[in-house]
Q: What sequence folds into this?
C-alpha cells in the first residue's frame, strides 16, 4: 500500500493531511502543487465517499487507496487475504444466482454436484483473472514490487459486487448481474488509473483483457462441468437397474 499521503485533487504527495490542535479540533492542510485542500473527504460522511466512489470520481479513489488504506493503518497481507476471501464468496454467490435462473429442473445429487461445479468454476476463473492482471500490468509498465499493491487496489475497487446481495430481496432481473460486472470493470480501471497514473485507455484495456479472460475461462470450465454432470446424474438409475 501507499507509504505517503496523496492530494485527492491532483495526486501529488503531501506530508500530512491535517494539523491536530486538540481532540475534535483540526485544520485541513493544502496541497503545495495545486493549492487545494489535500483531502476534503476527511470532513465528509462515509455515505458521501461511497456515492463518489459509485460515480467513479478519481479523488474518491485516491482518498480510499492512498489516505485510508495505508501501511500505517492496515496490515497489507491480512487485508489482502480478507479481500480475496470476500471476492471469492461474492463471485460464488453471483454464479449461484445465474445458475438458479438458468436451471429449471432438479436431479438427484444435483445440490452437491452443482456446488462442486460452482466452486471449480469460481476458483479457475479467478486464478485466470489474477494471472491476466499480472500480464496486463506489463502493458502499463508496472514494476514487480507494486503488483501486490495493484492487486489489492483491484480487489478494493470491486466493492460494487456487494449489490448482488440485494438482488433476491428487491427482485432484480438477471441482467443486473451483468450491469454490476460492467461497473466492477470500470471501477477497476479507475483504481488502476489512480494508482499507476497511466492513461485511461491503457487502464481500460488492461482491465477489459483480465475480465474477458476470466469470463472465457468461466464459460469453458462451466461447459465441461455440465458434460460431467450430465454423465454423473444417471449413475443412480444404473445402480437401480442392476
A:
Amino acid at each position: 500500500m501507499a507509504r505517503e499521503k496523496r492530494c485527492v485533487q491532483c495526486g501529488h504527495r503531501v506530508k500530512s493531511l491535517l494539523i491536530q490542535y486538540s481532540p475534535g479540533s483540526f485544520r485541513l492542510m493544502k496541497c503545495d502543487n495545486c493549492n487545494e485542500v489535500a483531502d476534503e473527504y476527511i470532513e465528509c460522511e462515509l455515505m458521501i465517499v461511497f456515492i463518489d466512489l459509485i460515480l467513479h470520481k478519481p479523488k474518491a479513489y485516491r482518498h480510499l487507496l492512498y489516505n485510508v488504506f495505508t501501511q500505517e493503518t492496515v496490515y497489507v497481507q491480512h487485508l489482502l487475504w480478507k479481500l480475496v476471501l470476500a471476492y471469492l464468496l461474492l463471485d460464488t454467490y453471483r454464479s449461484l444466482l445465474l445458475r438458479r435462473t438458468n436451471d429449471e429442473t432438479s436431479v438427484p445429487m444435483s445440490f452437491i454436484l452443482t456446488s462442486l461445479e460452482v466452486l471449480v468454476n469460481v476458483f479457475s476463473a479467478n486464478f485466470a483473472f489474477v494471472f491476466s492482471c499480472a500480464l496486463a500490468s506489463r502493458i502499463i509498465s508496472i514494476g514487480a514490487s507494486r503488483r501486490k499493491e495493484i492487486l489489492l487496489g483491484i480487489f478494493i475497487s470491486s466493492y460494487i459486487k456487494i449489490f448482488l446481495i440485494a438482488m433476491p430481496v428487491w427482485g432484480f432481473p438477471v441482467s443486473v448481474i451483468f450491469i454490476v460486472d460492467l461497473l466492477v470493470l470500470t471501477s477497476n480501471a479507475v483504481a488502476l488509473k489512480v494508482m499507476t497514473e497511466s492513461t485511461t485507455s491503457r487502464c481500460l484495456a488492461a482491465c477489459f483483457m483480465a475480465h474477458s479472460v476470466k469470463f472465457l475461462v468461466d464459460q469453458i470450465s462451466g461447459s465441461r462441468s455440465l458434460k460431467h454432470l450430465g454423465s454423473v446424474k444417471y449413475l443412480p438409475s444404473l445402480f437401480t437397474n442392476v
